[in-house]
Specification:
heterotrimer; A alpha/beta (about 280); B alpha/beta (about 375); C alpha+beta (about 80); A: Rossmann fold; eight-stranded mixed beta sheet; 10 helices; B: about 375 residues; alpha/beta; Rossmann fold; five-stranded mixed beta sheet; about 40% helix; globular
Chain lengths: ~280, ~375, ~80
């Protein structure tokens, strides 16, 4: 019997592996889950686009063997907006980090969720800016040490599922890189969900977050996820804030229906303009 | 290839420049516009919002100019012709994505209806003070194409042309209007669709396995692939190789930046678009563009009436700057006069190419147009 | 190069040169098939090695965890 290939392999640009991520970094783990979720979703690779912003997670697009777009810092979502509206037959996935999506790109996230654009956003939340040297992000927990909060963070961070739900996302889940099978399932559900779906993945940055905050290496950080995580599907998102210690509430929090931007536009114009409405051709 | 008649509003109309630019985009088969309201450009997207649902276009009012200026790039890679429209501070916010479109060779159009600055400046009053920003506003080194209409008719014509140039060279093309031209109403004649020639997108003919997304053709421009067609290509704003993969080596940077600049520089003569009147044998040539080219005319006429030999050289394509033309003219005349609604931008380009000829700038901080008498005085003093 | 270690229920395949020695596969293998090898990769990391191959169920949790795409399992 011949050796079977790694299931991740056909989704990778193998000529670009090994990747740039540090030992123990969680981004690669999320990519494993993502590729297996694509497999299970039945979405053809030729109809899938991955759009990333800038940063460590921003490099995911470049490793994925699909139509892939490595855009500017914070602007993956508006790029994906244009792409999706121009090519509605594509499944568009934005894959980026917490700093990219929620600091510089925060405005785009809330508006894309409000519009219910038909796209999946995966946020690999490692609680820091990895590529630029471990600075504070909008998700860094209070008290955490970052290179720009050397005495600890005193800002209140975003609770991302709460933010996503309140802006209108139709699917919201959070898992950690410890929960690989749950994460794969959530990604599959998000890929198949019509509308704006959001999956947050808590993920280790051993080099710049774990070490600095005395958590240890990547493996140690994942072990803390195992110890601290509490699965609460359907938990009110207002109750899932993250701290340095205490529970990491994970689960599927939101799964609801709402017309997508495209459907709302088509239905609205068809009602207002009747036969005069010319739907955009693909 | 002729334009799709669905978007062409053939006939004679009474339009302001903003509305005419909208019609130019429609005629050029633009079917995606992302915009954010800002005076004095808003009328362009207001008309787009009204017209697009009737012709199969998608207009989205984005949350800001950063979003608008990259949503159009997404739409282009999804197969559409796309543009965004802005003014003043919005143009500043879009600069990163001008550079992104240059780097990723995304054919798209930016319209800037210029107003007075810096900062919030003069929201409803004219200026031509973004001309150097158009050339150099994004970081890094690059070449760009910028056009300057001087009438509503040219807002139509040059917006239409901008889309074709964007496709031909795979570069963002900037239509540098100004508040006067944008809000001025005049007769605009829109031709029949079969009289409008569309430069089609340069789709690759290579099979997916053989396609290199950034391997240039003979004219240094690579062929494009569209998302969803099985090419599984990668594009990035990082320095990249012909495969589109990041390659941050000195050699890759040298190769890529040289090609991105050369594909415009080597075509500077083909891109030259000027209107001349009385330039041959002139002692003085007035170099001008946009609304100022019209304000200069009475000054030129007054000088000619008193016997001066004054030429009128109007730049419709400002970038790339017509260096060779200015150098050739410089040897045969005494002076250039360069009136513009800024404190001296294009005049520096003229100085660079003027050789022994005198160069006299006629600066104006904006808010209104020049008094033609000021330009007339500058012309007379230039030959004294 | 990768060598399949065939046993009754499942197989784990290790691509040692991609490994960065994080140890996730060893820690989270539900049947304790793996241990970090004392050997070094060419980059100086300790890759995993199969120490209880007969226990492998082919569940591919190692493949799901491995951030470096250096290991995976499959059922026979």
């Amino acid at each position: 019997m011949s050796e079977r290939a790694n299931p991740v392999e056909r989704y990778l640009r193998s000529d670009r592996i090994p990747h740039i991520w540090c030992p123990g970094c969680g981004i690669g783990t999320t990519v494993n889950c993502f590729t297996r979720a694509i497999d299970e979703s039945g979405i053809p690779m030729d109809r899938l686009a991955v759009v990333s912003g800038i940063g460590c997670t921003g490099r995911v697009a470049g490793y994925m063997h699909v139509d892939s777009f490595h855009t500017t810092h914070g602007r993956a979502i508006p790029f994906a907006t244009g792409l999706k509206l121009a090519a509605p037959g594509m499944k568009v996935v934005v894959y980026s980090g917490d700093g990219d999506l929620f600091a510089i790109g925060g405005n785009h996230f809330i508006h894309a969720a409000r519009r219910n654009l038909d796209m999946t956003v995966v946020c690999v939340n490692n609680l820091t800016y990895g590529m630029t040297g471990g600075q504070l992000t909008p998700t860094t927990p209070e008290e955490a040490i970052a290179s720009t909060s050397p005495y600890g963070n005193f800002e209140q961070p975003f609770n991302l599922p709460y933010l996503a739900e309140s802006c209108g996302a139709v699917y919201v889940a959070r898992w950690t890189t410890y929960h690989v099978t749950h994460l794969k399932k959530a990604m599959r559900e998000a890929l198949l969900k019509k509308g704006f779906s959001f999956v947050e993945v808590i993920s280790p940055c051993p080099t710049l977050y774990g070490r600095r905050n005395r958590i240890g290496d990547g493996l140690d950080e994942v072990k803390t996820y195992k110890q601290r995580s509490v699965i609460r599907n359907g938990a009110p998102t207002s109750e899932v804030s993250l701290g340095m210690t205490g529970p990491i509430v994970v689960g599927k929090f939101v799964d609801r229906e709402r017309p997508t931007y495209q459907d709302a536009m088509d239905q609205f114009y068809a009602r207002k303009l009747g036969d005069r409405y010319a739907r955009a051709s693909q | 290839m002729h334009a799709d008649p669905a978007g062409v509003l053939t006939g004679a109309h009474f339009l302001d420049g903003d509305h005419a630019a909208c019609e130019g985009a429609l005629a050029a088969e633009c079917r995606f516009v992302a915009g954010y309201p800002i005076t004095p450009s808003t009328e362009v997207v207001e008309r787009i919002a009204q017209r697009f649902p009737l012709v199969g276009g998608v207009f989205i009012q984005m949350e800001d100019e950063l979003a608008s200026s990259i949503a159009i790039a997404g739409a282009v890679w999804g197969g559409k012709r796309a543009m965004t429209v802005t003014s003043g501070p919005g143009f500043s916010l879009m600069m990163e994505h001008v550079g992104f479109a240059v780097m990723t060779e995304t054919p798209c159009v930016f319209i800037n209806v210029q107003r007075g600055g810096p900062s919030t400046g003069l929201p409803t009053l004219p200026a031509q003070a973004d001309m150097m920003q158009a050339r150099w506003g994004s970081h890094g080194d690059y070449e760009i194409i910028a056009l300057s209409p001087n009438s509503p008719q040219e807002c139509f014509d040059l917006t239409f042309k901008a889309f074709n140039l964007a496709e031909q060279y795979r570069v963002p093309v900037l239509v540098m209007m100004d508040e006067c031209v944008g809000h001025m109403m005049e007769r605009v004649v829109i031709p029949r669709a079969e009289e409008l020639e569309i430069y089609p997108r340069r789709w690759t003919k290579a099979a997916p396995g053989e396609y290199l997304p950034f391997a240039p053709g003979e004219d240094l421009v690579p062929a494009m692939a569209r998302a969803g067609q099985g090419y599984r290509f990668h594009m990035t704003g990082l320095t990249h190789n012909e495969r589109g993969y990041p390659d941050m080596s000195v050699a890759a940077q040298a190769r890529l930046v040289a090609r991105l600049t050369d594909k415009i520089r080597k075509n500077a003569d083909a891109l030259q678009d000027v209107v001349e009147d009385g330039v041959d044998g002139a002692d003085v040539v007035v170099v001008c563009y946009g609304i100022t080219s019209r304000v200069a005319l009475p000054a030129i006429e007054a000088c000619r009436a008193s016997g001066l030999k004054v030429g009128w050289l109007r730049l419709r394509t400002v970038w790339p700057f017509p260096e060779r033309l200015i150098r050739d003219l410089a040897s045969g005349l005494r002076a250039f006069v360069v009136p513009e609604l800024n404190m001296g931008q294009i005049v520096r380009e003229v100085e660079r190419c003027a050789g022994a000829a005198r160069v006299v700038g006629v600066p104006h901080a904006g808010g209104t147009v020049h008094d033609p008498a000021v330009i007339e005085r500058a012309i007379r003093e230039a030959v004294r | 190069m990768a060598q399949p270690t065939r046993r009754v229920r499942g197989v784990v395949v290790i691509h040692a040169e991609r490994c960065k020695g994080c140890g996730l596969c060893v820690e989270f293998c539900p049947t304790d098939v793996l241990a970090l090898s004392p050997a070094f990769t060419s980059k100086g990391y300790h890759p995993p090695e199969v120490v209880r191959g007969e226990a492998c169920s082919g569940c591919d949790l190692c493949g799901m965890y491995c951030p470096d795409f250096a290991i995976y399992g499959y059922r026979l």
